[in-house]
Amino acid sequence: MSNGVISSSHNHSIDLREAKKLTKNFRTHASPNAVIGGAIRKEALLSVLNQTDCIAIRVYFAKTDDGENELVIVGMDSSGKDMIQGELLERIWPCPPYCDELSPLRGEDQ
Predict the structure, then answer these.
(1) In angstroms, rounded to a whole number, what is the distance separating the alpha carbons of residues 89 and 44?
(2) Could you tell me the pTM of the whole model?
């Protein structure tokens, strides 16, 4: 990736071992009651991805006025520009409380 333009050959896939390591690293440095994840409905993501010339999504880390972690999601066009005139998303269903209690990505004991 260079100058905001994404290579079409980049593979975003990771295995469960790496995913567990990354989420554990985050939890290790987060405050005890921090939001550690969130859910977004498929239809909401598709409303961003289905925009004309949208080739990817870009995720910005954000905080609410109350200090809670949040995400802002925007489409990205083929020149690597944010599609700020299009559909923008936030308001994840935060985990906790909206968590998969049995997920190995949620805690090191699973």
Answers:
(1) 7
(2) 0.76
Please, are residues 107 and 89 in contact by the beta-carbon 8 Å criterion? no
Report the greatest alpha carbon distance in the chain: 43
The predicted-structure confidence for 81-99, as pLDDT tens digits, reads as follows 999 999 999 888 888 888 8
Q: Which contiguous run of DSSP H or E holds residue 55?
A: strand 54-63
* Helix, strand, coil tally for the chain in percent (to 5): 20, 25, 55
What burial letters (b/e) apply to 8-17, b meaning 16+ CB within 10 Å? eeeeeeeeee
- Cis amide linkage into residue 104, ω under 30° from 0: no
Cα distance between residue 55 and residue 49, in whole Å: 7
Could you read off the pLDDT of 58-80 as tens digits, one per residue? 999 888 898 877 889 999 999 99
Residue 56 structure tokens? 């990817």
Q: Where are the domains of the chain?
A: 41-99
CA pair distance 25, 36, nearest whole angstrom:
11
